Amino acid sequence: MRPAFIAAAFAAFFAASAFSQDKPAASPPPSWQQGKPSALSESTLHPFNIEMTGRSASELPIDKLKVPAGFKVQVWAEGMPGARSMALGDKGTVFVGTRQLSEVYAVTERDGKRVATVLLKGLNAPNGIVFNKGTLYIAERDRITRYDDIESRLDNAPEAKVIVDGLDPDKQPGHFWKFLAMGPDGKLYYNVGAPGNIVMPGYFQATISRVDPKTGVIETVAQGVRNSVGFDFHPKTKELWFTNHGRDWMGDDSPNDTLNRVSHKGMNFGYPFCHQGDMPDPDFGKHRSCAEFDKPTLKLGAHIAPIGMRFYTGKMFPAEYQNNIFIAMRGSWNRTEKQGYNVMRVVLDPQGKVLKYEPFLTGFLLDAKADPPMWGRPNDVMVMRDGALLVSDDQNGIIYRVSYGK
Length: 406
Known about the structure:
Strand order of the largest sheet: 10-11-12-13-17
Number of strands: 27
Order of helices and strands: HEEEEEEEEEEEEEEEEEEEEEEEEEEE
CATH superfamily of the domain at 54-77 and 154-404: TolB, C-terminal domain
Mean pLDDT: 93
Number of helices: 1
Structural class: mainly beta
CATH architecture of the domain at 54-77 and 154-404: 6 Propeller
Shape: globular
Helix content: under 10%
Largest sheet: 5 strands, mixed
Radius of gyration: 23 Å
Low-confidence stretches: 1-22
Strand content: 25-35%
């Protein structure tokens, strides 16, 4: 009986193996489909890919870009595929990070021309980037590093010094890319996004944290933050303000992406239980109340993907623009008719109340129902020393300059 039993067992094993080879196990869906309800199983909505090699400005409808009267927008630099976060060096170098690629660029003046070169390569989604007192800080997928005296070594970058490591121990498939900002307290602020569209995050996920670059000690700044890829500090109050992406697959018009203000320690903005401050999640929010969480300062619109944001501190623009917020909207994909793809202006009163929310730079969106609907995607904004505003476009690898005056 035993030989017959063994023979039968082997036969069953090989039959199963043959079957599995004929019909391999289905791979899990991409993270952007996580949380997609069965009622939308036939939906063809999907994220849009960037131009991995970039595009020349001469190929693009730059003349469609519009700014308010008295302002002018023009191409400032190109040739930086995937260009996202920007940082300004003491000597005028503009450093540019990427997310889908592995490069960090440096834009400099050579022989009267602006030239973009690859400064660092082989990094792991170096999206976050900050320059402070001669040092370039970079937030990759899993670590934050520093490059000292970088502007003196643009042709021979120094070795990275690790400030903190292990920021992505599970190699999460979701929102792993990081933004980076230097706080008025001398600490580096960074985000760790939720590991999926709508999931229960780990204790260090769906947060904004800060790390002391001298000691490596980490502190949590805010919780319940699904995916912030842009923040800045109010020039007068020094409070942290940040943008946040709402979840997907809850309809064309909900939930809103938001602008948020950190006014005190221990704030929790609701993810995954509550969205936009007043909308319980259909699954995680069943037994929780939105009243227990902190509210956003402003609802920005659904699925518009607010990315980089900066307070305007320059002197070039009219006085009423002082301390306004500029927000780069990368634009929607999880919406039947797309929206965003612009730079918005937020006007605040001295107490931080929103007085006005309006478009500032438009023209990237061509057809809200097309696939893709746009020719460019604003990603970060940065104020230059002359007061002009730079806007990065990771879709094409281009930086635009918005100026005011004759």
